[in-house]
Amino acid sequence: xxxxxxxxxxxxxxxxxxxxxxxxxxxxxxxxxxxxxxxxxxxxxxxxxxxxxxxxxxxxxxxxxxxxxxxxxxxxxxxxxxxxxxxxxxxxxxxxxxxxxxxxxxxxxxxxxxxxxxxxxxxxxxxxxxxxxxxxxxxxxxxxxxxxxxxxxxxxxxxxxxxxxxxxxxxxxxxxxxxxxxxxxxxxxxxxxxxxxxxxxxxxxxxxxxxxxxxxxxxxxxxxxxxxxxxxxxxxxxxxxxxxxxxxxxxxxxxxxxxxxxxxxxxxxxxxxxxxxxxxxxxxxx
Length: 286
Prior knowledge:
Layout: H1 12-19, H2 35-54, H3 72-77, H4 82-108, H5 113-125, H6 129-139, H7 141-159, H8 165-188, H9 191-221, H10 228-284
Helix pairs in contact: 2-4, 4-9, 4-10, 5-6, 5-10, 6-7, 7-8, 7-10, 8-10, 9-10
């Protein structure tokens, strides 16, 4: 009988990975997953407002949309079919901004994030791991979630006597990275749409402006005296679309930059605490 060859030992890194159990983690951040539904609902609302609100007979002389507008709503209606498109973009920016405000506010947790970071670092310096974990349960939010998951792994590594110190530090670093990567998509969700609308709103407004000016020049080029109604309609369309485009682009830029700054602050807090946890473990373990 042939003698069986002994199996080659597994590399130390593979053994270390196998011995560290990975439980499934789920992000606590909630938000609107399908932005297309938001855009569709905003489009329906914009069309209804345009047709039945701004296009109401009472907004025009003679009770018809062919008459001269009597108020601002009637003037906006004269902006043409580009107006409901711009209204759709503006409503989308508003709705997604509110959605991001709610999501990022919940991700920030309870209380001040800077104070939470300072308290966690103080607990780590005093080796009060359980107290730090309790603080995370009370704080909640993305920063607390990342810290809590890392501290769970910290205690596991503290009780593990089979891995080397460098392997344990690698596990902790990987835990920080994985927990952070789990939270980031929920924080930045729908922000690319806001970034797109910063440019798209301005471009669509510019398109409406050009179309309005074309109508104005057509009225001026008519034989005989220019049609004052057509001329005023073209100018109204140009100005209304310009205003809507600028408002949409400006609001989208402000919203995008505001929430990006909020996310950066949370990311900095996570990086700071993650570094502190790894540094504390390195300093207190041989």
